[in-house]
Amino acid sequence: MNNLIIVRGGGDMATAVIHRLWSAGMRVLALEAVRPAAIRRQVSFSEAIYEGSATVEGVTAQRIEKPQEAEAVWRQGNVPIMVDPEGRAIRELRPAVVVDAIIAKKNLGMHMDMAPLTIALGPGFCAGKDVHAVIETMRGHRLGRIIRQGYAQPDTGVPGKIGGYAAERVIHAPCAGRLRIRHAIGDMVEEGEVLAVIEHETGETPVPATISGLLRGLIRDGFPVVRGFKIADIDPRREEFGNCFTISDKARCISGSVLELACACLYQRGEKR
After folding, report:
1. Tens of pLDDT along 152-194?
2. HEC assignment per residue over 198-245
3. Among the residues of the chain, which ranges form H helices?
4. CATH code 3.30.980 for 4-155+249-272
5. Options 1.10.10.10, 2.40.50.100, 3.40.47.10, 2.60.300.12; CATH of 167-236
6. Is the Cβ–Cβ distance between 69 and 119 less than 8 Å?
7. What torsion, rounded to 10 degrees, do the Cα atoms 217, 42, 245, 84 define?
8. With a cut of 70, which residues of the chain have pLDDT below it?
């Protein structure tokens, strides 16, 4: 499988990468955690871990239980995704390219020996040491740039500004417990409206909307959260309903850089053969 690309992660950013690579005719396998915590679930292939399959913009990811099942999924024209946070399938399948798209802001086991080409998205990796290339994920002039030596810009902890709002549009859990949602992605919500409650030993704590707008992202019902855990994302632009269900401009930009690197790698390997 020397033309295989393995993508670690299945959230919205990883999904954009997988979607772009698959649409370009490349063979892709996605690896996810046991309990993915994607916020933008409508555009995340990680939902297939829970539901068995997930479709984003015409491409379907299908859950498999072991690497040997991937071939049958590829023949169906779908993308296989499996639970494998440690990346055991990488050692078994020996892919040409491995992409870390977990967006954990730290290195969760990536190293350059994993494949002829290793790529990581965002901060937490050193290009030329941990991986061959890092893709800039910070919004702005450098978004999507390919870094071959050094680091991406450090995480500021402040989300990118949308419709004049930055930190205000992202909602974090006020306490630990089990999340019970009261709204669905795509709903219009008003500031102060209860989006969900967190059940805990002493009762339940409401989670209000911080601003008015479209509920663009919301973590799964029943998910166990800790205090400070990111659970929702509101887009203040009420007219952008379709954005809740499509890959973002930022993710498309980043995925294009991954595709550029992957194409070059596969071409060079083909030339050598």
Report:
1. 999 887 777 777 887 899 999 999 999 999 999 999 999 999 9
2. EEECCEEEEEECCCCEEEEEECCCCCEECCCCEEEEEECCCCCHHHHH
3. 12-23, 47-51, 70-75, 88-93, 249-272
4. no
5. 2.40.50.100
6. no
7. 110
8. 1, 271-273
